[in-house]
Design goal:
Strand content: 15-25%
Strand order of the largest sheet: 1-9-10-8-7-6
Distance between the termini: 27 Å
Number of helices: 25
Oligomer: single chain
Radius of gyration: 24 Å
Shape: globular
Number of strands: 17
């Protein structure tokens, strides 16, 4: 629940302020492939050469551990994904027929989409997507390379009624309607009854029940868990992960890293969630090391019941200069908590252990690959955050790559959707810095703010928890974006800067982001729901309302809908009033979380976050498509190559030359254990 995802539609304006010089070869380009609604980029890794040989070796083994977990995520998304992927890989590598026709080209595009989404469902919209080549042609490709079980695979690929959604958000039983491989042969009611029977409701430090398991029925029809560990279904992949983690531990920077790697390995061997908690607590204590990583079953976005952790990995190292901003924010965490507009009952009396830094990614995998967040705040367990704090990161080189890739695109969504030149100029001046600061506030403070009331279950909001948690963190960042404290601390340049972020957030949340959703479909992804909820709630509540501030009391309209030359715009007319609305909604969502008010949370999400106005949706899609900008983006990793002289490894170099399809096939050949 603790990620922030980059909005590609925002990068065009800020990119003009970003330096995107080529690497020494002069051939480095960020944008390397485009197809369907996707763009693929590469990111560079500044500071690599400043790492010691030991640190590079540490990163290398952590990156190898990351690659070995890729198959787990594919299988989690749908139990048939790996079988299909291996068939598609076989065609790409061995097909002996004509590769120049339109049908084969469309097959390759489908393969690229499959790799990007780690399965048959769109990585963001979560609906099944389909090839543009005929079913009979697809069948001939499979036959040509000797793929068995062809009839079933064709049903999997082409039947719109078979496993249509990765995660269902509506319907009679969202567990049965979801394609994710977290449940089998069980209903939502059975799953919820099973987890309600576990643990002590008064336990102040409960493990994250269900994070690392699949729920099934045994031979007698009893509901049980199949735990994901080295002896379980993902055992072969976990064994490879453990092997590389143990190699990494031998060259770790300090004893703290060796300790929490040992805890992580013990957890992978046993599946004991108490060991996962111990690992997270130990991991939080390491604020000295340069190199860091995430590896495990972490985020629950893909689970319709928000319990199961999707496998992910991220290997990185600290950007010391850029981290000064995030460190300043985290040092003042108590001030931000104390001055939050939420009810004092829901505030932390003492904010503990908030650490924040800016990092450069070196390897992405699983739920972070190819599409990756630009910021992460972990761990997710509320009691660990309460008692031990959290660790927040902003991924600088990923944001940099987005902005540089946007420079390589000739058209800008900002110019199309901003109301006037004043908005455009404001975005060009301030949006890059305010994007970074909003990410920092969201991750460093937003997710770590507030507390549950005694007796409130961390899972009380169920299927609405991810959307509401992301809204809470976004609102925290938006509210403080306009606070003079940020100027006082030297984080924001002046008190005009926040307006660029406000205008941009409303533009995107209420209309621009729906370029990503097919016409007629609801808005289902948690981050998109979060933004829609905030923007539409503020638009509705900001019409002709009585508002008082330092300038006096007035009736005002915070956001105005304007139609000009047949195009719709949402224009912020009163920035101070909008900040007040952000604070009001933050207070209510914090109350909902703190009290576990499921019905109130459900009402907010269902009213403001799901249904898209069909006429506005059609307009947005048409305007966006005319720009020929791909709304979704992801990355290839650089290869880390050992440099060997006389039998000894004397260095590790980064190779940026591998293309998108080339890397996907390479990973399939060399890092597939399932």
């Amino acid at each position: 629940m603790k990620k922030i995802v980059k909005l590609l539609t925002l990068t065009g304006a800020a990119a003009a302020l970003v330096s995107c010089g080529n690497k020494a070869s002069g051939e480095f380009k960020y944008l390397i492939d485009e197809f369907a609604d996707l763009k693929v980029m590469r990111y560079d890794v500044p500071g690599w050469e400043e790492l010691s040989l030991q640190q590079k070796e540490y990163v290398y083994h952590l990156a190898e551990a990351a690659k070995w977990g890729r198959d787990i995520y594919w299988d989690q998304n749908c139990k048939y994904n790996l079988e299909l992927r291996k068939a598609v890989e076989k065609v790409l590598e061995n097909y002996s027929g004509d590769r120049k026709g339109a049908d084969f080209e469309n097959f390759v595009i489908y393969a690229k989409r499959l790799f990007f989404s780690n399965g048959i469902h769109h990585h963001y919209a979560e609906d099944k997507f389909f090839p543009d080549c005929p079913k009979e042609y697809f069948a001939s490709l499979l036959e040509n390379v000797g793929v068995e079980n062809r009839d079933f695979l064709l049903k999997l690929v082409y039947d719109p009624e078979f496993l249509p959604q990765r995660k269902a958000s509506e319907g009679e039983d969202i567990v049965k309607a979801s394609a994710v491989n977290f449940y089998e042969g069980v209903s939502r009611d059975e799953v919820e009854a099973y987890y309600a029977s576990l643990g002590d409701p008064n336990d102040p430090c409960p493990p994250s029940y269900g994070l690392n398991s699949k729920v099934v029925k045994d031979a007698e029809g009893k509901v049980i868990e199949e735990v994901w560990n080295i002896e379980g279904a993902y055992g072969p992949a976990i064994a490879k992960i453990v092997e590389e983690l143990e190699k990494a531990a031998k060259v770790a920077e300090n004893d703290s890293q060796r300790k929490y790697i040992a805890d992580l390995v013990a957890y992978y061997r046993s599946g004991d969630l108490r060991l996962w908690d111990r690992y997270n607590i130990e991991w939080l204590q390491d604020t000295v090391g340069t190199v860091d990583f995430v590896n495990g079953f972490v985020e629950d976005y893909n689970d319709p019941l928000a319990r199961k952790g999707a496998w992910e990995a991220l290997v990185n190292f600290k950007d010391n200069e850029a981290s000064r901003r995030t460190e300043l924010i985290s040092e003042n965490a108590q001030w931000f908590e104390d001055n939050s507009p939420v009810d004092p009952r829901f505030k932390k009396a003492q904010v503990k252990g908030v650490s924040a830094k800016v990092i450069n990614a070196v390897a992405l995998s699983g739920d972070c690959y190819p599409a990756t967040p630009i910021g992460i705040n972990l761990p997710n367990a509320d009691w660990i955050r309460r008692d031990h704090g959290s660790k927040s990161v902003t991924i600088a080189n990923i944001t940099h790559a987005y902005n540089c890739a946007a420079q390589e695109s000739p058209k800008s969504a900002l110019n199309e959707f901003a109301f006037d030149q004043e908005e455009i100029d404001m975005a060009k001046k301030y949006l890059n810095i305010t994007d970074d600061i909003h990410t920092d506030l969201h991750e460093c403070l937003g997710h770590g703010s507030g507390q549950l009331l005694p007796g409130t279950s961390p899972n009380a909001l169920k299927e609405y928890s991810s959307t509401l948690e992301e809204a809470r963190a976004d609102l925290f960042g938006l509210y403080y974006m306009a606070d003079p404290k940020l100027v006082e601390l030297g984080i924001l340049p002046d008190m005009e800067a926040y307006k660029a972020q406000y205008a941009n957030y409303i533009r995107n949340g209420i209309m621009m982001q729906f370029s990503r959703v097919e016409l007629g479909r609801p808005n289902t992804e948690s981050h998109m729901q979060n933004r829609k909820l905030i923007a539409e709630w503020c638009y509705e509540h900001g019409q002709d309302f009585h508002f008082c501030d330092d300038e006096g009391c007035r009736y005002t309209t915070a956001i105005e809908k304007v139609v000009r030359d047949g195009k719709t715009y949402f224009v912020v007319r009163d920035y101070a009033a909008l900040r007040y609305l952000f604070g009001e909604l933050l207070a209510e969502i914090q109350r909902i979380k703190s009290e576990g008010d499921y019905e109130a949370g459900k009402a907010l999400v269902e009213k403001y976050a799901v249904n898209i106005d069909p006429e506005l949706h059609k307009e947005v899609r048409e305007r966006y498509e005319a720009l020929e900008i791909k709304p979704f983006g992801g990355f290839v990793n650089p290869d880390i190559i050992p440099v060997v002289e006389n039998g000894d490894t004397v260095d590790y170099r980064l190779d940026y030359s591998k293309g998108y399809l080339e890397q996907m096939l390479d990973y399939g050949r060399n890092y597939s254990a399932l």
